[in-house]
Design goal:
Layout (H helix, E strand, L loop, with lengths): L2 H19 L3 E3 L5 E3 L3 H9 L5 H10 L6 H12 L26 E3 L5 E5 L2 E5 L12 E5 L3 E4 L5 H8 L19 H15 L4 E2 L3 H9 L50 E7 L8 E2 L10 E4 L16 E3 L8 E2 L3 E3 L2
Parallel strand pairs: 6-10, 9-13
Antiparallel strand pairs: 1-2, 3-4, 4-7, 5-6, 7-14, 8-14, 9-11, 11-12
Helix pairs in contact: 1-2, 2-3, 3-4
């Protein structure tokens, strides 16, 4: 993709984000501006002719009950329906996007080949009233802005590309998640990657952003429901891991296309340890200071209870062990 294509894609990304925030302004006459008060219509005008199912899915995530939702659902079904190419004799294959088309607005690939998925703004009920006290009380959280989140846990290859070393205990396949990285080591990785790309957008997800993305709209123990017997299809944990990590992306993703959100390695988050509060909380950041940092998701060697999306755990920010890795977040656009 040439610079013109990259520039056009960047402009579209900025427009979509602005419209989801309801802040886009368009010129009417010289010297005057009119604020767009129908961001749904503006976003639909961008995605209605897109060949990418992910674009339409992102629209439905933002406006699931909107006036264009029925048309969007029909379009999504059409885009996802396999087509029979000429001479295929009944063998159905998905239709590739037209040559030269940009990647979907809902995904991006960065300078080290890391794939990130666009997580829409929204709200959810965070925590659980059924298990550990740390998970209580269940409370409403608003994620007011979209963000990008790694489709996979950060791999050993990606860590080595940025840092020049591989601290992991489980080597042999660089597509395994990097581990034996402390929270402080992760901050240095983020600093170097931001410097390489010339911005300051990469970071760890907050604990609230992590749980919001892990749930992917679910209100159950796991992203796929409450049936623990299905966990082996989604997570590497003590009943199927063989005492080791595994290359990322081998099991099923959640409904937002994120892999290994449960199991494989625990994932550091940005927050210091802190109690949950009652009421509706907008973009919670956790305490300003503390002694231990959070990590989420469970990992190899741990039981199914630790893989629940609401489970919380903590360690000192300099703690290093073969169960701890991370997933990268990036501000959008």
């Amino acid at each position: 993709m040439g610079w013109q294509g990259r520039a056009a894609r960047l402009i579209i990304l900025v427009l979509v984000w602005c419209m989801t925030q309801g802040i886009l302004a368009v010129a009417q006459e010289p010297g005057t501006l009119a604020v767009v008060d129908d961001p749904e219509t503006e976003m639909w005008s961008l995605v209605r002719n897109s060949p990418h199912p992910a674009d339409v899915a992102a629209f439905l995530q933002a406006y699931p009950n909107g006036k264009y939702a029925p048309a969007a659902r029909l379009k999504l079904q059409q885009l996802q329906r396999p087509q029979a190419p000429p001479g295929s004799q009944g063998i159905f294959l998905p239709v590739p996007p037209p040559a030269g088309m940009p990647e979907p607005l809902s995904a991006m690939r960065n300078s080290i080949g890391m794939e990130l998925v666009l997580i829409p703004a929204g709200e959810f009920m965070m925590g659980s009233d059924s298990y550990q006290l740390e998970e209580r009380p269940v409370h409403r959280v608003v994620i007011s802005k979209p963000l990008y989140l790694g489709k996979y846990e950060v791999t050993q290859a990606q860590w080595q590309d940025v840092m020049g070393t591989n601290p992991s205990h489980f080597k042999g396949n660089v597509n395994r998640p990097v581990e034996r990285v402390s929270w402080h080591m992760v901050q240095e990785f983020i600093r170097r990657l931001n410097a390489r790309e010339g911005h300051n957008k990469y970071r760890l997800p907050t604990e609230a952003e992590w749980e919001y993305a892990a749930r992917a709209g679910a209100t159950t123990q796991y992203s796929f429901g409450d049936n623990e017997a299905l966990l082996e299809q989604y997570a590497w944990y003590n009943r199927n891991d063989g005492g080791t990590t595994h290359p990322v992306g081998q099991l099923k993703p959640n409904s937002w296309g994120l892999y290994d959100m449960q199991g494989n390695v625990w994932e550091w988050v940005q927050d210091w340890r802190g109690p949950y509060l009652l009421g509706t909380i907008i973009d919670p950041q956790g305490p300003a200071t503390g002694n231990v940092k959070g990590y989420r998701g469970g990992g190899w060697g741990y039981g199914p209870g630790r893989c629940r999306v609401a489970y919380r755990s903590y360690d000192a920010p300099n703690y290093v062990y073969g169960t701890h890795g991370f997933r990268l977040a990036r501000n959008a656009p």
